[in-house]
Structures are given as C-alpha cells and as structure tokens.
C-alpha cells in the first residue's frame, strides 16, 4: 500500500511517499513520475526487500530505516553529494548522542562497525537521488553488535521520525560552503591518513579527498594521485 503526504516547510514543498514494503526505495524513486511542481520527494518503506549500494546489495530488515530523497539540483548540488550526505548523517547520529565517523566514501561507522550507508545518484540533469539505509533495530548478518540506535531511541520512535530529522539535516548541509563541507568531511573521515595497497600504484597513503569525494593519495614515488574506486584498495592498517 502506498500513501502520499504533502507538506509545506517555509517555501519548500515536500512530498512523502510511504510504502509498507518495496523492493528498493532507490528503484521506486527512479521509476516515479515527477511533475513540474515536485520539489523534494521522499520515498520511505517499512520493509525493503532488495536494496543496493555502491558495491552490492544492502539488506534492510523491518525496523531499520530505508528511504530515498529526490532533490532538484538547485537544492542539493550533485558535485558534492557524498560530502554533504555524510555530514547530514553525522549530525543525525549526534542528535541522538551517538558518536560516529566516516569510512570513505559512504559508510557511517559506530563502535567500529557499519551502522549506516548511502548511495547518491544523478537521476537526470535537474534531479538527484540520495538513498539511505540505517541499522536502527536489527543488525545485518556478519555484525557482532546490536545497532547503536536501539540503545538511544525511545521505544515509541519509528523510522519515519528519523526521516524528518534527516531531511532537516540534508537541507542544512546543502547550505554549507563547499570549502567548509570538505573540511568537516576530512576531519570525520578515518580513511584519511591510513595506508593502503592499490592494484595499480602499489602502497600509498591517503592524504585527503576532493569536493566530489574522490580520494587523494601519495604513492611511493612521492607523486599524488586521485582515486575513485573503493574496490581497488586493500586496507593495510588495522581497523580501529
């Protein structure tokens, strides 16, 4: 069952499309028929059966957050989507008293384990999609700890409540100057300063990121290279 709720926040029109269950909120957002009057559209489900991320499937059990935000590009810039979405999620976790860090490019880490992830895509020249998954109530297979949110949320709080907070943080992060967004991301990203093995360049040290969230690294020759593919790195440092 699908429900559409429209609200006006200031001069911003926000439509919430809620589904009891869907394959993937990101897929639904891609197939949605947008009207010229649509501003921000949020797709939320209680149960996502086959979500996906940058490198493969993202499992989202009932009780966890699965949602996709569809923004016009004049509201949320495609060039720095990963930086700004990361900062919005850090602020959301901070709101609930949860300390978190970023593992490049799109993982939010709590107590050494992934607690959230997101995927940014440009749907068309004038619209971007930000899909977010947060382990709120159920930990996925392979993790050893209960989700951090389970210890901090009031039992009456539902994932739809988190959608409201995160919407505010996404809009706030969209207004941060590029240079400040880059600085804040760099401060919170634990990938920076660590050593890795690269398939082409060999051993290297990550020294920073670009505004488009590519890694900047120093290789053995002393030269600097820009990297985009997380799958080509093998971590040489112990996970902290």
TrEMBL record:
GO terms for molecular function: biotin--[biotin carboxyl-carrier protein] ligase activity. PROSITE patterns: BPL_LPL_CATALYTIC (PS51733). It comes from the Eukaryota. Pfam families: BPL_LplA_LipB. Gene3D superfamilies: Bira Bifunctional Protein, Domain 2. Residues 7-192 form the BPL/LPL catalytic domain. One of its GO terms (cellular component) is cytoplasm. SUPFAM superfamilies: Class II aaRS and biotin synthetases. This is Biotin-(Acetyl-CoA-carboxylase) synthetase. It comes from Giardia intestinalis. The lineage of its organism: Eukaryota, Metamonada, Diplomonadida, Hexamitidae, Giardiinae.
